[in-house]
Write a structure and sequence with these properties.
The protein has helices spanning 12-23, 28-33, 44-60, 70-78, 88-98, 104-110, 113-133. It is mostly helical.
């Protein structure tokens, strides 16, 4: 796992996903990230892209964070006409799934207790921000 921090884009998987995002003119890449191959066991790279997709959804809704990579901010700025609201429930569900026992990403983070707790708070914050966005 090429990871250097607890934030959503602090890993190779999420940053690699941004290359696909930059090529898209619609929400297909975001939608695809929210369709993992196997929900029985979620692979680490799928978990990373799920979280990245959640951040992009929030960004398109005007609720993005300053810590997003410039490429992601630029893409969001160029695609403000897209409506990601129908994707919010699925993104919330999958954020919870990333934190479940059958998640490789969660397993990998659990190997470092202090970092795990901080990473978990980040994911819970993302899910909470997505839930809150439904009321706006």
């Amino acid at each position: 796992m090429g990871t250097w921090g607890i934030k959503t884009f602090d890993n190779d998987g999420a940053l690699d996903w941004t290359f696909k995002l930059e090529e898209a003119d619609d929400l297909s890449v975001v939608e695809s990230a929210l369709e993992p191959e196997d929900l029985d066991y979620l692979e680490a790279d799928e978990g990373e892209t799920i979280l990245a997709a959640g951040e992009v959804i929030l960004g398109l809704m005007g609720k993005g964070r300053d810590c997003l990579p410039d490429e992601v901010k630029d893409w969001i700025g160029s695609h403000k006409d897209l409506d990601p609201r129908p994707l919010v429930p699925k993104a919330i569900e999958l954020c919870r799934r990333v934190l479940a026992p059958e998640s490789e990403l969660c397993e990998l983070w659990e190997e470092s207790e202090e970092d795990y707790l901080n990473w978990r708070k980040e994911v819970e914050s993302l899910a909470g921000r997505l839930r809150k966005s439904q009321g706006d």
